[in-house]
Amino acid sequence: MNVHCPHLPAFVDGELPLEHHEDFRAHLASCEACGVRLHDLLQADILGRLAHTKAPPTPEATGIPPAPWPLPPSEPAEVMAPPPHPRRQRPHWSHLGAFALALAAVSIWSTRVTREPPSPWSAPEPTRPLEARLTSVPLDGHRPYVPMRGGVPAAAPLPLRELARMEDRQDWRGIASAYLLAGDARQALNYLGNAAASPDVDSDRAVALALAHAGASEQTALDEALAVLEDVLRKQPDHPQALWNHALVLRNLDLPLLAADAFDAVAKLGEPGWSAEARTHAGLLREQTLARGRAWKQAFAATQDLMADSNAPLPLKEAANLPGIVRLAFYDAVRAAPSKDAALRLLPLADTLDRAYGGGTVLHATVTRVAARDFQKREPLARDYARSVRGRTPFPPAFLETLRRSGEDDLYVGALGYELTAGRPVDVAVFARAADGLGDPWFHLIAERERANQEVRDGQWWKAEARVREALRTCAAERLDYRCADLHAWLTDMYLGELHRPAEAHAHALRGWQLAKKQGEWQQERLFLQELAQVARFHHVAPTASAYFRESLARVPDDRTQLNYVHRNLATLAWMDFRVDEARQHLEQSMESGLPLGLNGAGVLADLARFGPMPGAADALSRALSGLRQGQARPGERALLDSIQGEFELERDPTAGRALLRSVLTQAEQWPGDVYARRAQARASAALISDAGRTGAFVEALALAGRQFQVTEVPERCVLAVSVQHERTLAVARGPSGAVHGDFTQTRTAPLGQDASGLVPPALQEALRGCEQVQVLAPPPVNGLPRLLPPDIAWSYRVGHATVGPLPPVDSGEHLVVSNVDTPAALGLPRLPPMSHPPGEDARRVMLEGARATPSRVLEAMATATEVEIHTHGVFSPELSDASLLMLAPEQDGRYALTANQVRAHGLSKAPLVFLAACGAARTAPFPHESFSLPVAFLDAGARAVLAATVDIPDTAGRFFNDVRERIHAGALPSVALRDERQAWLQASPGDRWVHDVLLFE
Fold it and tell me: Where is the Putative zinc-finger domain (predicted)?
């Protein structure tokens, strides 16, 4: 039996993962046994559907996951398909079924057993249960929307005969609509995949995407739906259903002002019913959102006179509703109080704030302590403090020294805090000690944040991370949500800017946003919208990132600083999506503000220089880089700024540009652990490699690619370098004779896809044919993509190691095998089939199985192994990690995932050969400046070579990896062993396309 044959029931039942469909269809076309079984299974399926109509459905049969948009109730018909039976829970996304091949059989059976109405659509009811709009004409007439009450709706049955008729007509969109109305969005999505691309099909597909993923990650579902809808509207801006669904997606992303604008666009179409409903939605969304903004602004305004006017009304109501922003002003009011009575007057406000934070007397004690001070000495200091704060002028050093000696610690802490906020130099240790001395948790948290900032500046990010995480625990215990949100923002910025870990950044940005919304902190909400936008940008989810940025600007549309910030970031997103003209327009809008462009804006300005001169660009870049170079820029940051300037100069003065970019490489190589230095190296290398390719200096391009991977001597033969710099692609091959061949183009119009096919022209592939093996030097974002070379060529990716020694002897250390893992039951992951080991004893083999295969035990065992095999489930979710996760047995604290960061942190002293027989273990985040994946993490930890797949693999794939291992033991080079086993496997099972996506990293 072929390895695909056991998957036939799952294929018919709709449970085979979508990524396996293409391979299984290819297998089905050539397998006679599966063809016979398919007929039998379809007959059984139809009979089961008929039998189901004679019995009432059970709650288990009708349960489906909740959806972002409510689903319709059942529709009557004589013979109907039953609801889908419960499916096991999947860790992060749901997959689609394969009912498409069954419709012909359904047609035959349904004509024998029933007489159905000629249309699958029931007569219109007075209300509609589906809030989204479908494009089938009979379904798009307006009816008021009435949400389902009473929880999860039952899935509607399906009219089998009419489905068969639509199948005969190849009306895939109609069939998909029927499934959507029946509550089976997964099947709907499957049928829409058969339909020819069109705006109508894509609009319906966006609805199906949201509903199909509703039981998993709603964020992922909405991201995908938004991307599809914006593509439709880019092609057809007045598409009514897409406009409506676009508004719903924006609303469900909690972007109410953008959603209101989108509903306005629907209202302008003047459609009966739909326009009126759209106007209602737009008005409610806009008013509710702006009302919250007005409440925050009123609270803020109510606090502004407290410092200047000792008789100003106390904002007691505002303190109860918005304690965060009022507490900030309360501290300044206490500091500025000119007398004991003026201080005691603030006691009601202190008590209100104490109650708002769950009780206690911290702020009451603050007032009484200040009121007890000697105001003959304090009053002049308080007056000068208030004058500087209101005037936003720096505190003179002499005044700060006077405050330090005065014993008025609250004034001293307040003044130092303003200096820190303004970016002026302050002794952090002195500030932190003084802040802790106040005995107020609010200031202790600020002190911890500033200590962490200093640790980051000192290069001790791990200390800073641990400190702020501990501060978050303190913050939660004290219920100081405003300060908690501030700490979440700090962690978000560090994970993005310092550590390049957007998955963790997303978790903190999302939590901070939730806290800000809960507290009604309008200003913090806007800041977290921008944090979420940056996370989405790092994840290359451009439509969602753009939406977050635009929502943040909609809240302060006339703010010059925000106009500058948002438009320069929108320029970055447009550039990422290859919309060059749009990127230029956004940069021009940002430049119109008269403010510096910042790091992202400067980077895009340098990129756009390749597309011709832009008025004012040189001055704008000079201003941006000058501003960024001020202060205490670290070496890596200085190198990154030089790389941007070098790219820009390369188009104006190539000689000067090349010199500056080469100096960047020298700078960056001195700071390999600095993320800014790595970004600088990546930018400079990509620019220099493209420049070499453009001028035909292919040998120089090879040397530059080797330098990026710390290869001091590029092989004289059988090596390939591939570089992609946005629109530019360069491939350089050195074949068995040592002759160099190159190909340079600058016509790319879209980002790289999921594989690298087409990057290496046929002529260069042919030049490598005589090589025993090919070493590939491919900087990100190419590194880690499958199908770079044909399957009959033995090749591997080189990943950043200065030397490559021989593989350790087979009998020199332990052979660790992790298999039969007891993953957490809540994940619903099936147990993989037991590993069958080669005949004969293996005294070196160490097994970790079942509940013993925890992350900590696996890490410990790998440290001394010369070979590592891990057979388990793999998961790739950018919300959880920036590389694939390996699902292992849970620790006592519940942790069960082995991550790239954990692997990288543990040394592999025996330089093992690693086999990752897990789904998608080689998937990598699409970062342009560094490869980030499990294989790279293993290599960073000390592994000699890693085999892993970029796609989901069948449960039987363990045999493939074991056979590769046996070939290596027999003396074959790893790349040759992989090539030969792939060829043998494809000869036996031509439909097993996944073997093309197993890669070797060395």
Answer: 7-34
Amino acid found at 622? S
What are the DSSP calls for 31-88, one per residue?
-HHHHHHHHHHHHHHHHHHHHHTTSPPPHHHH-----SSPPP-----SSEEPPPPP--
Helix (H) or strand (E) holding 113: helix 103-113
Distance CA 438, CA 431 (A): 11
Residue with tokens 């660790």: 816
Q: d(Cα 437, Cα 447) in Å, to the nearest integer? A: 10
- Looking at residue 140, its amino acid is D
- Mean pLDDT, residues 900-909 taken together: 87
> Which segments of 56-179 are extended strands (E)?
80-81, 158-159
More confident residue, 631 or 241: 241
The conformation of residue 813, written as its DSSP 8-state character, comes to S
DSSP 727: T
- pLDDT for 641: 97
Q: Which residues pair with 821 in a beta bridge?
A: 850
Specify whether the CB–CB gap between 515 and 486 falls below 8 A. no
Residue by residue, DSSP assigns 217-259 as -HHHHHHHHHHHHHHHHHH-TT-HHHHHHHHHHHHHTT-HHHH
Alpha carbon distance 82, 241 (integer Å) = 29
C-alpha to C-alpha distances, 923 to 916, 928, 941, 997, 999, nearest whole angstrom: 12, 15, 18, 10, 10
The Cα–Cα gap between 658 and 878 comes to 36
What is the spatial distance between Cα 464 and Cα 306, in angstroms, rounded to a whole number? 36
pLDDT at 30: 57
- Please say whether the structural domain 814-1001 has been given the CATH code 3.30.230.10: no
CA distance linking residue 527 with residue 518, whole number of Å: 15
What token pair was written down for 911?
Answer: 């330089």
The two beta strands, 795-797 and 80-81, are unpaired
* CA 94 to each of CA 213, 431, 897: distance values in angstroms, whole numbers, following the listed order: 6, 51, 20
Range scoring the smallest mean pLDDT among 1-15, 258-272, 351-365, 685-699: 1-15
Q: Work out the widest C-alpha separation in the chain, in whole angstroms.
A: 101
* HSE-CB of 473 using CA atoms within 13 angstroms: 5
pLDDT tens readout for residues 102-137 = 333 233 223 333 333 445 555 567 888 789 999 988
Give all strands of the β-sheet with 913-917 in edge-to-edge order. 740-745, 728-734, 719-725, 774-777, 795-797, 998-1001, 945-949, 913-917, 865-871, 814-821, 845-850
CA dihedral (546, 551, 554, 556) in degrees, to 10, reads -100
State which amino acid sits at residue 104: A
Which has the higher per-residue pLDDT, 373 or 33?
373
CA end-to-end distance (rounded Å), the chain? 35
The two three-digit tokens of residue 263, written as one number: 């509903």
Residue with tokens 């939605």: 281
Quick one: how far is CA 693 from the chain centroid?
33
Q: Are 340 and 374 in contact (CB under 8 A)?
A: no
Does residue 802 have a pLDDT over 50?
Answer: no
Cα separation of 386 and 672, whole Å? 46
Say if residues 589 and 562 touch (Cβ distance below 8 Å).
Answer: no
**Which amino acid makes up residue 911?**
A
CATH 3.40.50.1460 positions along the chain are: 814-1001
Provide the pLDDT for residue 568.
97
Overall average pLDDT of the 898-912 stretch: 88
pLDDT at 805: 56
CA distance 970 to 982: 16
As a whole number of angstroms, the distance between CA 783 and CA 793 comes to 17
**Would you give the DSSP letter of residue 949?**
E
Give me 49's structure tokens. Answer: 């559907």
The reply to whether omega before 199 is within 30° of 0 (cis) is no
Q: Is the peptide bond before 781 cis (omega within 30 degrees of 0)?
A: yes
What DSSP state is assigned to residue 312? S
Q: How far is CA 940 from the centre of its chain?
A: 23
Q: Which residue has the tokens 């040592």?
A: 738
- The pLDDT value given to residue 843: 77
